[in-house]
Amino acid sequence: MTMEFARPYRSRSAIPAAPGRPYFIEKGMGDRAHLFGDLVTVYAGGEQTENGFNFFTVEGPKGEVIPAHLHSDTHEVFYVTDGAVRLFVEDAEGEQQEKLLTVGDFGFVPKNCPHAYRIERHHSRVVGVAAGPGGTFERFFENLGTPTDDLGLPREPYVPDPEAFATVPLRYDVRFLPDHQWRTGA
C-alpha cells in the first residue's frame, strides 16, 4: 500500500514532501505527467533529496526528437530499461555525438551540454537521474505538461501552449535551443 500526500501543485502524491524520510513507491505510482506523447513518472525529487538529485522515468512511443536543450547547473543521466533511445549530445568544444542506447545502456550529459533524444522503438522507457549545484528539475514535466493519474501514455499528445514554453523552462534549469542543428546524420 502506498501512502498519499497532498502538495500545493498536486492533490495526491506517493512521495513525502519532507527530506530524510524513507519511503517506497510501487511501480508506476510516482507523480505522473503527460508531456508530448510521453508519460513521465517522478519517484524522488528535490524535496526529498535536499535538492541533491531527482529520479524519474520517461516512457513513450517511437517519435520525433525531443527539442535540443541544456541545463546550466544540472548533470543528467539516461539509462534505458525498455526499447531504444537515440541520444544526441554536444560537448563544450562543440563536438557532437549520437548514440543508440538499448536496454542496459547508459548515457551521461554534463551540465551546459546541448542534448536531445528520440525514442526509436515503441514502448521504450528511460530512467533519468539529474543532479547538480542548481538543484533538480523534475517538476518541469508536470508544469510544462499536464499532471495525470493515468498509468499509460496520453491518448493524444499533450502540446503545451507557447506561454508555457516561454516561462516554465526557465524556472527549472531547462533552456531550449530552437535553432540548434545536429550534424551527426540521424
H and E order: EEEEHEEEEEEEEHEHE
Instruction: Report the strand count.
Output: 14
Assembly form of the protein: single chain
The shape, in one word, is globular
Instruction: Evaluate the radius of gyration.
Output: 16 Å
Structure classification: mainly beta
Q: Characterize the biggest β-sheet.
A: 7 strands, antiparallel
- The mean pLDDT is 90
Q: How many helices?
A: 3
Helix percentage range: 10-25%
Strand content: 35-45%
Spatial strand arrangement across the major sheet = 10-7-12-5-4-3-13
Low-confidence stretches: none
Give a verbal description of the structure.
The protein is mainly β. Helices cover 10% and strands 41% of the residues. It is built from three helices and 14 strands. It has helices at 46-49, 140-144, 162-171, and strands at 5-7, 10-13, 31-35, 38-44, 53-60, 66-70, 75-82, 84-90, 96-102, 106-109, 115-119, 124-131, 146-148, 175-176. The strands form three sheets. The chain has a seven-stranded antiparallel β-sheet with strand order 10-7-12-5-4-3-13. A hairpin with a 2-residue loop joins strand 1 (5-7) and strand 2 (10-13). It is globular and about 45 Å long. The mean pLDDT is 90.
Brief overview, please?
This protein has three helices and 14 strands. The protein is mainly β.
Which terms summarize this structure?
186 residues, mainly beta, seven-stranded antiparallel sheet, five-stranded antiparallel sheet
Itemize the secondary structure elements and their pairings:
Layout: E1 5-7, E2 10-13, E3 31-35, E4 38-44, H1 46-49, E5 53-60, E6 66-70, E7 75-82, E8 84-90, E9 96-102, E10 106-109, E11 115-119, E12 124-131, H2 140-144, E13 146-148, H3 162-171, E14 175-176
Antiparallel strand pairs: 1-2, 3-4, 3-13, 4-5, 5-12, 6-11, 6-14, 7-10, 7-12, 8-9, 8-11
